[in-house]
Automatic annotation (TrEMBL):
Pfam families per UniProt: TctA
Name the UniProt record assigns to this protein: DUF112 domain-containing protein
Transmembrane segments annotated in the record for this chain: 7-28, 40-62, 107-129, 135-154, 161-183, 189-208, 309-331, 354-375, 396-429, 441-458
Positions of the DUF112 domain: 12-432
Species the sequence originates in: Agrococcus casei LMG 22410
UniProt entry keywords in alphabetical sequence: Membrane, Transmembrane, Transmembrane helix
Presence of the UniProt keyword Membrane in the record: yes
InterPro entries hit by this protein: DUF112_TM
């Protein structure tokens, strides 16, 4: 009991922090999960927060953000983040029908239901996979190579992304050799930061260039139409079970179950697939659109949770698109968490399976209790305040400052240059060729884990 109480305290405190911070950040349109959640989680780890606190913070952060990201998506018609993009068309059609408030409630209710389902299911699937963990770890280098090729091929760029892995891997190898010769050590965190914030770094370079600045200029302020506020209930606020119909409850639960098991596929692709799979069976435009809103937003929760928990609990290696991007600090954040030579020393070894289940559910419940009532009752007021008062430039500046501080912490000016180099190249791959951050993170692991094994065969 004496050991349990401090863990509960850390879990509660950090879950509250994660839910509040990213519940609010979800209101800001265009805040990509990899560029926001990953760096902040990395900072939490480097500050010395205990493993249970780190895990609770991350789980609450992804759960809260994928509830409130539906607010700008449905009420303003602009995606709250990357995972909100598949919801945009359905949300726009429901706006045209005059029921954006229904779209919002269906989306956030689906997210709540799926998050609560995904945690125990992910732990169960991880438990089923655990007997094979040693065999998987022994060939980790080759698995990372195969996973990198698969994830690249499943991205929008297909074979272009697969081919782009080659120069990106060579870039990582060259920078690693340079930092080893200069600093007598290789870097990790700086590579992560560069990949995670690549599009942001590209935009900053464009803004600093007279030629590039022209592509970012606008003749006038952007205008958005905020849907009217509407509350359709009396008395107590309805629960997700009251908002979703019986068919929508079943569809959302089914999608959450399927997407929790298929943890090796892209979260965006699974979100689109689940929406089409379950929505196509519903007759009537209104019922189909509202079902797709609940299913799709539910899938954004279940994919993020399952793709983090299954590889983390069962193997300890980032063998999913989510684990290799947004959740990467949970696997590899030197010097605190490492996966040297494919051997994990991270949350996989520091937490027991029951702790993942109990504290994962605790974090999700805290995030739901904070964000669901807020999104149901204050969405219109919050969206209006964010659009009028919050400066996107200030948020970008804050994350740019965080990038500089963490890079300097790991390796001084050399590490900062590495971050900028990787970010500039990775950001251009992302923006110009749709080679997303998951592919790039897997490319990094191929460079540090797969290439040495391949070279050893020919030595």
């Amino acid at each position: 009991m004496e050991e349990l109480l401090p863990m509960i305290g850390w879990a509660l405190g950090m879950a509250l922090a994660g839910a509040i911070a990213f519940g609010l950040l979800g209101l800001v349109s265009g805040t990509d999960e990899t560029a926001t959640i990953a760096p902040i989680t990395l900072l939490v780890i480097l500050l010395g927060v205990p493993p249970v606190g780190v895990f609770a913070f991350f789980m609450a952060a992804i759960s809260a953000k994928h509830i409130t990201h539906a607010i700008p998506t449905t009420l303003l018609g602009i995606p709250g983040d990357t995972m909100a993009a598949p919801l945009l068309r359905d949300a726009q059609l429901l706006r045209e029908l005059g029921v954006p408030h229904i779209a919002l409630r269906k989306a956030i209710s689906g997210g709540v239901l799926a998050a609560l389902i995904a945690v125990p299911l992910a732990v169960l699937f991880a438990w089923l996979l655990t007997p094979f963990a040693d065999a998987i770890s022994s060939v980790a280098g080759w698995i990372f190579l195969a996973a990198a090729v698969l994830i690249a091929f499943l991205s929008k760029s297909r074979w272009a992304a697969v081919i782009a892995l080659i120069p990106f891997v060579l870039l990582v190898l060259g920078l690693n050799a340079f930092t080893l010769a200069t600093l007598d050590k290789t870097l990790t965190v700086s590579f992560f930061l560069g990949i995670a914030t690549g599009p942001l770094i590209v935009d900053m370079f464009l803004a600093a260039s007279p030629v590039g600045r022209k592509t970012l200029q606008r003749a006038d302020k952007r205008r958005f139409e905020l849907a009217a506020d509407s509350r359709t209930w009396k008395g107590r606020m309805p629960s997700p079970f009251g908002v979703l119909s019986r068919g929508q409850l079943g569809a959302t639960a089914g999608a959450a179950t399927i997407s929790s098991a298929t943890f090796v596929f892209s979260p965006v692709a699974m979100t689109v697939l689940m929406g089409e799979l379950f929505g196509s069976r519903v007759k009537g435009a209104y019922q189909r659109l509202t079902t797709q809103m609940s299913v799709k937003n539910g899938t954004t929760e279940s994919t993020y949770i399952a793709e983090t928990l299954i590889p983390l609990i069962a193997i300890g290696l980032p063998l999913s698109p989510m684990a290799a991007s947004v959740a990467s600090p949970l696997f590899n954040a030197p010097p605190v968490y490492t996966i040297d030579d494919g051997v994990p020393n991270n949350l996989h070894t520091l937490l027991e399976p029951w702790q993942f289940l109990v504290f994962g559910l605790l974090a999700v419940i805290i995030a739901v209790l904070l964000t669901y009532p807020f999104a149901m009752t204050q969405a219109h007021r919050a969206a209006k305040w964010i659009m009028q008062k919050v400066s996107h430039e200030a948020i970008i500046g804050a994350f740019a400052g965080l990038l500089v501080v963490i890079s300097l912490y790991e390796g001084g000016v050399i590490a900062l240059f590495v971050t900028l180099t990787v970010g500039l190249v990775g950001g251009m791959l992302n923006k110009l060729f749709a080679v997303h951050t998951g592919v790039q993170f897997m490319g990094y692991y191929v460079a540090v884990l797969s290439v040495p094994g391949i070279l050893a065969l020919f030595a």
